[in-house]
Structure formats: structure tokens, C-alpha cells
């Protein structure tokens, strides 16, 4: 399962993304993308063995959450390759 978080500052570290999830040990991989706008980074967080219900709770909690004076946009794609 994957969560995408948009509108992160370009100096966001892996550690800061982990802190958004309170150090959840099910985080398998974190990757960043700045396609289109280098000032707005997208973080792709892949979780191991997380249910859709838990995933949606995290998305609801993070969506419109402020981090470093930016309003985050979180979503969980249904299909991701």
C-alpha cells in the first residue's frame, strides 16, 4: 500500500517523513519526486502489511496537515505500479 504526500518543501528528509508517521516500522520504502515543480516535492511512502482502513486513516490525518508552514495534500492511490 502506498501513500503520496504532496507540497513538501524541497529540503525534506527521509527522517522527517518517517516522523509524520510516528516512526511506523511498516514503512518499506520512501522515494521523492519533484517532477513539474522543484519547490513542491511529492513523497511516495510504501508500507508493508498495512490495511486499506489504516492507510485511509493516515491519509485523513495528514491531508491538510501543516508541516514547515505548508499545507500537505495526502492521498492513497488505488492502483500503483
Reconstruct the topology from this structure.
Elements: E1 2-8, H1 14-20, E2 27-33, E3 41-47, H2 52-62, E4 66-67, E5 70-71, E6 73-75
Tell me about this structure.
The chain is α+β, with helices and mostly antiparallel strands. 22% of the residues lie in helices and 35% in strands. It has helices at 14-20, 52-62, and strands at 2-8, 27-33, 41-47, 66-67, 70-71, 73-75. The strands form two sheets. A four-stranded antiparallel beta sheet has the order 2-3-1-6, with helices on one face. The protein has a two-stranded antiparallel sheet with strand order 4-5. The longest helix has 11 residues, at 52-62. The protein starts with a strand and ends in a 6-residue tail after the last strand.
Q: How are the strands of the biggest sheet laid out side by side?
A: 2-3-1-6
* DSSP strand content: 25-35%
Low-confidence stretches: none
Distance between the termini: 11 Å
Percent helix:
10-25%
Report the major sheet.
Answer: 4 strands, antiparallel
Average pLDDT across residues? 89
Number of strands: 6
Count of DSSP H/I helices: 2
Classify the secondary structure makeup into a structural class.
alpha+beta
Order of helix and strand elements from N to C terminus: EHEEHEEE
Radius of gyration: 12 Å
Q: What best-fitting shape do the alpha-carbon axes yield?
A: globular
Give me some keywords for this one.
single chain; 81 residues; alpha+beta; 4-stranded antiparallel sheet; two-stranded antiparallel ribbon; 2 helices; 6 strands; 22% helix
